[in-house]
Predict the structure.
Amino acid sequence: MSPSRTPAIEYTCQDHTLRVEPWGDDSVRVRVARHTVQDGLPGALSDEPAPTAAERHDTADGTSVLTVGRLRVELSPQGHLTFLRASDGGELLREVAGHFAWPGPRQFTPVGDGHYRLDQRFAAYDDERFYGLGQHSHGRLDHKHMVLDLVQRNGEVTIPFALSSRGYGLLWNQPAVGRVELAANGTRWVADAARQIDYWFTAGPAPDRILARYADATGHTPVLPDWALGLWQSKLRYRDQAELLAVAREYKRRGLPLSVIAVDYFHWNHLGDWSFDPADWPDPAAMVGELADLGVRPLLSVWPSVSPLSDNFTTMHEQGLLVGTEQGLPFHHTFPDAEFEGRSLPVAFYDPTEPRARDFVWDRVKENYYDLGFRVWWLDACEPEIFPEQYSHLRFAAGPGRAVANLYPRDHVKGFYEHTRAQNALDPAAPGADEAPVSLVRSAWAGSQRYGAALWSGDIPATFDALAAQIRAGLSAGLSGIPWWTTDIGGFHGGDPDDEDYRELVLRWFQFGVFCPLLRLHGHREPRGTFAAGHSGGPNELWSYGDKAYAVLRDQLALRERLQDYLRVQMRRAADTGLPPMRPLFVDFPDDPRAWHVEDQFLCGPDLLIAPVTRLGEREREVYLPSGTSWTDTSTGTVHEGGRTVRAAAPVERIPVFARGGASFPEPA
């Protein structure tokens, strides 16, 4: 057991040992082990929390009490915990047993290798609402009455942090595969394999305070570089250097501001080469130079997969740098290979929980990408995608697959962030050397934000229903500590640029994207090419959707440019306080009961209320305006008092946007 650094409360019985200790302002860490509580296990928390004031005492009935700022924790003589507000003793959360015959609210079921299936139960409250918990495609902001798998999948991002409407936040500090059940008859967190129960609990008077404490505990995001606030142009895929440069030049010719353009997958010969195919990309350094002259940064796709045809495979396998298996060869998926005309071959994944593996991958990335001028990384497929999902068969340097698999995306982006920063520091006079590295990632875990992770929502359908779900997905990601978030504007799977209904979807999605933290066009448009034809989809640039749509998209891009000063302030605030720039209404208006139920609107910073349009043909929509302030319709100048629902016009050229109080809205020059 770790030595007592500050006042703590403990409980020991024949079944387990429990320890509760202060872990930041208004916060505690709870660990329960079969024998001795261990430090140094994989998780999102450091072993040395910031010092904080705390008091401990025992009551006459044998209850142990620990008070940390706004939080009071009571440990009963029977070993049950209750979390309360220190100010008035109001109950926030309490442990409950699943059955009267059980030894308590916790269960340890041995699964071998010193690990247990863990089961931690809490009481349910009828009026409670749960937010955060990563990013999911189910289309809901409140997760109450749902069961969520704690596993990383394409479009399903596991971050086991729940923000409760009762005034607390709970981080299940376990990278294990498992689930959380938010049922009417109880809340249960389950880890399929772990050494001990470990969770962090904080209390706050409002959601913004809870998010600040969570950022303090798991790490603050860096300040987003200014260039990242512009347009990110992408499609599946630009087949070669000439095609990509032609698109960048066309943006310049049209006077359209462009910040980033993507070099997507299959720029290599084989997965795991981490280098260019010179037949299609003859001079990447010259390409980077021309893009720099155009004011554009290239985004470079780097996959964690390693094909057995790659020159790196044998070395990585022999040196133990790949995710291992309990039996057999380390193959975890299949993926098409261009050399075999798109036929799929088995592939492995490198193991980012092994520092030597992170170093090995970086050495190749530095030689073949960084030294050519690339600085912005697209860490695609970083869940990673395991097929079939047999995590009990996997073994990482950090531990068995079932126990640590959810760490993968965090440790992957950590390697790129730390190595890029270290390399940039060797040439501090180089342009951008003092900026935080940015990596676009398809998955994340608790703490990913401190390594420059910009999360996007994965391979989603090109439908209005998917657009509606993105609002909830982005808000959930922000409430999970990830303030840098984006989505594939227009959806990923399909979409015909010549179809009028799809063009309207692109317009509505782009109008939503203008107010998201990052603005990114991407997708696999029709007609979709075959591998023999270069595996490239249809066009996906601003001018690809007809003249009428182009005029709207051009105006919306200009609006995004005018918003950048405002967005820059919000990004700095996110770095300082953990407050996401894109957030639900209740974060700023926690005393407005109706604000907690609005899921299809959001705030962009404190001053702008955004009401996306998510139905084909919709030209007006209802908008709820939170109480306590006035709101100005930015298109008409009409002022409304808060606490009411208004019907706002939503012509195809724009979506409803309201400015808070006397806040200004950037007008066209």
Observations:
- The mean pLDDT is 96.
- The first helix runs from residue 207 to 218.
- Residues 475 and 583 are 5 Å apart (CA to CA).
- The two ends are 64 Å apart (CA to CA).
